[in-house]
Design goal:
Helix content is 79%, strand content 0%. The protein has 15 helices and no strands.
């Protein structure tokens, strides 16, 4: 017969036995409690260093702008550069207030934004239509794609003298410059989006016997919305930069012309005001379009 093994230690009796039996139960209760405390949001946030918590906050993106503004203020206060070269932020702010009170600032901004939105609207619509047709038609792509790729490589600024000779220095010149800067970016984005559509979509269209217009309306256009929005956002920023550059070279009004006139009069405060406004408006346009893009694509997140 098999004999049971006996422990060499005497059995526990009394209070010691009660404590020994209660110890495993206390351990079982303590383990979930510690895991719950470790998974609590407050505990995880408390373990993060201060730098990581600051970088994760929404206000961390403004730190670089505040540091640049502080460096600009210190440089002018310590006179690292002559006042004729680098003016103080306070002087730029006062100049902007004076020009806003006189209405000159709003007139120039209104003209520039009008040119931007008109040219951007026409260029975006034409780019979407051209990109869809180029992506769907192999015959059109064989004839037009080489020329399209050559023209989109030409810098828009390099075409300004040619545009001035053709359209003069009136409003048409600036609007066509914006159209050119927008059309090729949007057209390329839409063309690539159409070319990379899954073949399954076209198989579904063949099963249901869709017409060409039904394929474009029900399959192509909904599928290329994300890529199209990204291309339009990039084109908007590029069009704004090109427009200000064109106004610097040849314009009778606008933000770029305001900066050029300030340079001719040695008013560096007006020049810096135009530089700051150009950056702020470009940032605002990009951020606003990103918000619109997130709103239109909210179904993708859900």
């Amino acid at each position: 017969m098999r004999t049971a093994l006996q422990s060499p230690y005497p059995p526990l009796t009394g209070a010691a036995a009660v404590q020994a039996s209660a110890a495993p139960q206390a351990l079982v209760r303590a383990v979930p409690l510690r895991s719950a405390l470790a998974q609590a949001p407050g505990a995880a946030a408390a373990r993060k260093p201060l730098v990581e918590r600051w970088l994760a906050s929404r206000w961390s993106g403004w730190l670089s702008s505040l540091l640049l503004l502080a460096l600009w203020s210190v440089a002018t206060w310590l006179e690292w550069m002559p006042e004729q070269v680098l003016v103080s932020p306070l002087r730029v702010l006062l100049t902007g207030w004076e020009m806003a009170q006189s209405g000159e600032l709003w007139d120039n901004l209104g003209v520039s934004l009008y040119r931007l939105f008109v040219g951007f609207g026409v260029g975006s619509i034409a780019g979407v239509v051209f990109g869809v047709l180029l992506g769907l038609s192999s015959g059109l792509r064989a004839y037009v794609e080489p020329t399209f790729n050559v023209l989109r490589q030409l810098p828009t600024v390099a075409l300004i003298p040619l545009f001035i000779l053709v359209f003069g220095i009136g409003e048409s010149f600036k609007v066509f410059i914006v159209i050119k800067a927008t059309f090729f970016v949007v057209g390329l984005a839409v063309h690539d989006a159409v070319r990379t559509l899954s073949p399954r979509y076209r198989e579904v269209a063949q099963i249901y016997c869709f017409s060409r217009w039904q394929v474009i309306r029900s399959i192509v256009l909904p599928s290329i919305i994300p890529a199209t929005l990204t291309g339009v956002r990039i084109a908007l920023s590029r069009a704004w930069m090109v427009l200000v550059g064109a106004e610097l070279l040849a314009a009778e009004s606008g933000l770029g012309q305001m900066m050029e006139l300030g340079r001719q009069m040695f008013r560096l405060d007006i020049v810096m005001l135009g530089v700051v406004l150009t950056g702020v408006i470009g940032f605002s346009l990009d951020r606003g379009f990103r918000m619109l893009e997130r709103y239109l694509m909210r179904w993708k997140r859900s």
